[in-house]
Amino acid sequence: MPETFGVGKCHQKKSNKEFFRNFIRNSIQWLRLADEKQQFFVQTNKDIYASGETIYLTGELYDDKLEPISDAEIDINFSTSNNSYNLNLSSEGEGIYSGKINIPETGDVDFTVTAKRNDINTNNFSGKFNIGEVDLEKLQTIMQDNYLKLIASNTGGKFSFLHNTSDITNEIDNRSKDKIKVTTSSFTFNLLSSEVILIIIIIILSFEWFIRKREGML
After folding, report:
1. CA torsion, ordered 132, 135, 138, 140, to nearest 10 deg
2. Which phi and psi (to 5°) does residue 37 adopt?
3. How far apart are CA 90 and CA 74, in angstroms?
4. What distance in Å separates the CA atoms of residue 121 and residue 86, rounded to the nearest whole number?
5. What is the DSSP letter of 212?
6. What does the pLDDT look like over 187-201, one tens digit per residue?
7. 37-69 tens-digit pLDDT
8. pLDDT at 155
9. What is the reported pLDDT for 41?
10. CA angle at residue 145 from 154 to 163, to 5 degrees?
11. What pLDDT shows up at residue 205?
12. Which end of the chain is more exposed for a tag (fewer CB within 10 A), N or C?
């Protein structure tokens, strides 16, 4: 009889512990959703994107009892001033959905979200974000030396910090010495070997003598 009581008491403790755990989890879900006053929402990871930047979206879906719904079909329609785009979010479990898209335009982008379950529309949501004409290279001005080292390695180059410029100059000098080829050529021209040139020289000298004679310089 005492052993039966002990087993019953242990089982009751486990049940109480499991009940308390479920109660805390459900309370947190209820408080969070009650504060947001939404059982379904989809949000982007940013409000403003640079041109060409990837847009990441996450969403959550719960039923009236605040239980997560993981088997719904979440469709998003994006509308710009010129075009429209579509995206289907993938289920990550526990009522969480995610996806990403690239929109090759700039300006305001409106999006509407529809959640379907068993071919029935259960929830709708809408939002907006902006894609600006921003240079992505200017968003992060800190040097990424790991990326530069990777580029140098893949292209046969060498990466060095500013305080190690002597290593680079020495490397350039060594490579230049290996590749420089010096070619020397000489050409000798004998003026006396050409009669035409010899006649021209005689005429020039004769003309100079005539001028000097006339001016009384001789």
Report:
1. 70
2. 55, 35
3. 8
4. 17
5. H
6. 676 665 667 777 888
7. 468 889 999 998 988 889 999 999 888 877 888
8. 83
9. 87
10. 110
11. 83
12. N
**How many Cα atoms within 13 Å fall on the side-chain side of residue 71?**
4
Q: Residue 176 and residue 53: Cα distance in Å, rounded?
A: 42
User: In terms of pTM, does the model score above 0.70?
Assistant: no
- CB count in 10 Å sphere of residue 78: 19
Residue corresponding to tokens 């509407």: 112
DSSP for 167-204, please give it.
HHHHHHHHHHHHH-----------GGG-HHHHHHHHHH
H/E element, 132: strand 120-132
Calpha distance 113→99 (Å, rounded): 13
What's the rounded Cα separation, in Å, for the pair 148 and 162?
13
- Asked whether the beta carbons of 107 and 128 are under 8 A apart, the reply is no
Q: Determine how β-strand 120-132 pairs with β-strand 107-117.
A: antiparallel
**Sheet holding 48-50: strands in order across?**
40-44, 55-61, 96-101, 84-93, 73-79, 107-117, 120-132, 48-50
φ, ψ at 186 (rounded to 5°): -130, 150
Q: What is the 3-state secondary structure of 51-65?
A: CCCCEEEEEEEECCC
